[in-house]
Amino acid sequence: MHSPPAFRVSIVHFGVWRAMCAGMGAAAVLTAVQWAAAMVGHTAWVWVWPLAVSAGCAMLLRRPVPFHLRWDTQDWFVEPGQGGALAVPGALQVAFDLGGWMLLRFAPGEGGRARWLPVQRRGHEPAWHGLRSTVYCARSPVDRAVADL
Q: Are 121 and 135 in contact (CB under 8 A)?
């Protein structure tokens, strides 16, 4: 089986990811407040509310960094959107696929720390089909070697 052709996409839109983080932040705030109110009584609102709100706001304010995702027919590369850092080859796996949104896991080949990559169709429509096709069809050299056995 042949590997898919080279592919590159710039991921710069994260609206769906931010909305999901906002929902999780709101759920965290409500859960903390409900728990504190049930355990301590109504006086818990005084100290839990500011902590829960700040945790939820921290999730909202942390902006994902734009990046370039590249397949060179052999390996995946993730490059920072601002440039400067060298791209390292690695393996890409789909963690979640909701049709119009995917959460990808990039594991550098040199034992570096894995990175989670939220990718959405909105804002990347022209490249979306190519990205999904390449993500599912591209295999690392190790995967290809195992498949050839």
A: no
Residue 60: partners with Cβ closer than 8 Å, 6 or more residues away: 18, 21, 22, 25
- Going by pLDDT thresholds of 50, 70 and 90, the confidence category of residue 46 is low
Same domain (yes/no): 57, 74: no
Contact 79, 68 (CB under 8 A): yes
Tell me if 115 is assigned to some domain. Answer: yes
pLDDT at 4: 78
19-31: average pLDDT: 77
Report the C-alpha gap between 18 and 25 in whole angstroms. 10
In what helix (H) or strand (E) does residue 77 lie, and over which residues does it extend? strand 76-80
